[in-house]
Prior knowledge:
alpha/beta, Rossmann fold, five-stranded parallel β-sheet, 10 helices
Amino acid sequence: MTTDRTLYLIACAAPPARRLEVPIRAAQRVGWDVCLILTPSAHRRLTEDAEDEIEALEEITGHPVRWQYKLPSQPDVLPPPDAILVAPLTNNTLAKWATAISDTLALGLITEAIGLGLKIVALLHLNDAQAAHPAVARHVDFLREAGITVLLGDGGFTPHKPKQGNVDAFPWQAGLNALYTEADQYRLGPLDPTGPIARPAAPQDVPHVARHDLSGPLGLTGAALEVGVRRMKELHLVMGSSTATFSGDRAAA
């Protein structure tokens, strides 16, 4: 599938970070060019506690895996993002993000992205003891008020008992589905909720202006033509919203 939009997948040092191939391949299936950014702790886990995992992820994405700020003299090696998925998001990064701390590349990207108006989805991973801390709810509410889709509770991640998490049950699909726009529905069709992560429905199930009354002008009824024009405008707005001035490391310049 042709990739026409760039998704930054920003992962923290939580157990689901050992399954990053899952969301990367799922996002690629629906047209995202995925770039992976890790927190320093996540990078350490994937280098010191795994073998050749960083190299494998670079091969899948076709991009370097970033985890630290570049020097001002160094070029940007990633394309600018159209959207950001922060998953898994740890309690530590949540607290820093909500208070505008940018002491890592991952935090620099997501704090700046708020001001740039990018689509941001965050999928937390924490246990119920961590979630019970009163600051967590405040931080989640604060980020939601800033326009970020934070998936915690119904429709997202449900905190587990300490040391009882299931890494394979992490709801990657919820995060990817939250990025799925009306323009995607025009281009790919509605998501099939019974299928694999973020898989579009079969083409015959897609509501499309090709299903028209041939008796209309140019083969389209007025209503079908109006729907087609509106959807094309929506697609153009989404596809043309790339933040050409965005650079993950320029935030530190």
